[in-house]
Please model this.
Amino acid sequence: MTKNKINLLDCTLRDGGYYNNWFFKKELINEYLRVMDLIKIDYVEIGFRFLDKVKTKGPCAYSEETFLRSLKIPKNLKIGVMINAADFVGQKNVIEIAKKTFKPKKKSIISLVRLACHYHEVKEILPLINWLKKSGYKVGVNIMQIPELSALEIKNVVKEIKKTKADVLYFADSMGSLDSFQTKRIINQIQSLWKKSTGIHSHDNMGKALENSITAIKNSVNWIDCTVTGMGRGPGNTKTEYLVLELDRKKEHLINLLNLIKNYFEPLKERYKWGSNPFYYFAGLNSIHPTFVQEMLNDNGFEPEDVYYNLKNLSTVGGRKFSKELISLGKNYYRKINKGTWDPIRAIKNRNILIIGPGISAIKYKSKIIKFIKKNKPIVLVLNAINPVPKNLIYANVVCHTLRLLSDISKYKKTNNYLITPFSSFSKNIKTKIKKKKILNFGIQVKNNKFKFHKNYAVLPNSLAITYALGICTSGECKKIFLAGLDGYNKTSPKKFEMDEVLQNYKLEKKAIKIVSLTPTNYKLKKIKI
Model:
């Protein structure tokens, strides 16, 4: 093992961007960079370099050269970006895509490029690793969910990366389940074959991120990830401020870091509430992917008992078994076309539709909504398993979020309503669980900012239940769409921006149906009083 100095890599803006859609104020970024330099952080991972062309996310999601040049980057602070192997896997011209994505190092502000990849993706990105290295970059490879791999799989993945010119081999404790003993065991497995630099990216599900990082350092791991206040997806990461104290790095500048936290990151944490909690701890104990927790906590429809029940169920059947299927939502899960078998035209053509969502307004205006239904006799679709009006007034529940579907199975069993869902896309396991329901199988394919409406499926920009419902209504050539209980996210939420964009793009479609909201909403929709 080559024993170099410890390299601290702060990835706050990259990992923390999952909370604010990578929209960080320039003032925050410049002060953050100044402080990172003062406390002698070696590398700052400024963000991702996503490949989506629409660019609806903030600048730290793309880390373009023009953006980087607009920042006040200290002379001695090295800048890195991360790319997802999944964006390149399966592409025919990986190197051509890379050439369009990265300039040669001598023309770039970036020093380090890290590739985040799963075990099954490694072989396909080997040429990309070598191309980046040839272009002059320092290259790191992050193997995600490595604690879930067997000793043989770890051996195999290291052997594959050894074929390349990669500089650093990282392992990520994606489940946040490691303790110091397990961390040491994985390090020994890697370093028995890998003689270059090794790195660790720890998650704090069980409050052990710092402990595992220190254990790694004591066992010759010389690249350590950290984030200010631990800001990062789910429970977050090793805290930069704690690691700096442990390693005795420029303590005379600690006050600058503390002021950065107080002035910029504490307000963000108050808003987005990252960090460990009992649910993340439970997930860590049972090797359940933390995104299960984050998805449920971000959905107001999940009460604490729902979250616990689902996690308990996952601990029984295996969180890893469900992780791909339940977490790979949206673009990933519905990437392929899976046509349905139900043609909505037969049921809703030229009929008014009322879509009821989970907002508080659906409860507040419940009596008026019921009167509207009885007077106007629309076909009523409710999103997921909410129960806003008497069951006899509801035609169908609309659901395509797999985690939500499995969570609400007991609720669906108590009603005789139809269940409109992309049944063809589901695994055998999910199909078995819902096969006794009256299924209306309407397919979905998700593509960025795309709408296309077909006989028994729709191409949509995301897999939110409301977007799926719009696809059903439009393919079914309904007369008019009324909404109730679609209150909308708060005005600063990235999800509000996403939904505003979806609705705006929908209105531009030739086949778009007129939409009217019966209850108050934050979305840009026409509203009428009931």
Summary: The chain is about 40% helix and 15% strand. The longest helix spans residues 254-272.
